[in-house]
Amino acid sequence: MAHPTSFRLPADLLTRLEQEAASTGSTVTALVLRLLDEGLKTRRFAGIVYRDGPAGRRAGLVHGPDVWELVRALKHGEGEGEQRLRLAADELGIPLPQLRLAVDFYVAYPEEIDDRIADDERAASQVHDLIARRDRLMSG
């Protein structure tokens, strides 16, 4: 449950928040909540950033793929434990410390990453269904 609180913000910061909220179709409150949440997470996990894209905002390595992509690859990877990490790092071309960072982020925030993986799987399923329907139309 949310608890009401108040902050005194400098006028220029509030103006920038209002402008950013308006440009993204958000409210100032929603924007502040998102920025605080993301800021605390990225402060805890240096090397993780949030970025926008067609599928929305998501956590990713600073100079690498999204965390959900790495976790999905690990879940489908071969081996166990440390061997699985090393194999995935080699296959993905990601330095092992960066892959560990993504795993640590996932362990701390599994729902965020699992939701992104589920969204991707739903989208892939929809594409497969469309292709199958197209193929049926074209074959009959």
**Main β-sheet, spatial strand arrangement:** 1-2
Which CATH class of the largest domain is shown? Mainly Alpha
Kindly estimate the percentage of residues that lie in beta strands according to DSSP: 5-15%
How many strand segments? Answer: 2
Largest sheet: 2 strands, antiparallel
- Tell me the radius of gyration: 20 Å
Mean pLDDT: 93
CATH fold category name of the largest domain: Arc Repressor Mutant, subunit A
What spatial form do the alpha-carbon principal axes imply? flat
Per DSSP, the total helix count is: 6
Helix content: 55-70%
Helix-and-strand structural type: mainly alpha
- Helix/strand order: HHEEHHHH
CATH architecture tag of the largest domain: Orthogonal Bundle
Q: What topology does this entry show?
A:
Blueprint: H1 11-24, H2 28-44, E1 48-51, E2 58-61, H3 67-75, H4 81-92, H5 96-108, H6 110-139
Antiparallel strand pairs: 1-2
Helix pairs in contact: 1-2, 3-5, 3-6, 5-6
3D architecture notes:
The chain is mainly α and 140 residues long. It folds into two domains: 11-44; 46-130, Arc Repressor Mutant, subunit A (Orthogonal Bundle). 68% of the residues lie in helices and 6% in strands. The protein is built from six helices and two strands. It has helices spanning 11-24, 28-44, 67-75, 81-92, 96-108, 110-139; strands spanning 48-51, 58-61. A two-stranded antiparallel ribbon has the order 1-2. A hairpin with a 6-residue loop joins β1 and β2 (58-61). The longest helix is centred in the last third of the chain and has 30 residues, at 110-139. The N and C termini lie far apart (55 Å). The model has no long low-confidence stretch (mean pLDDT 93).
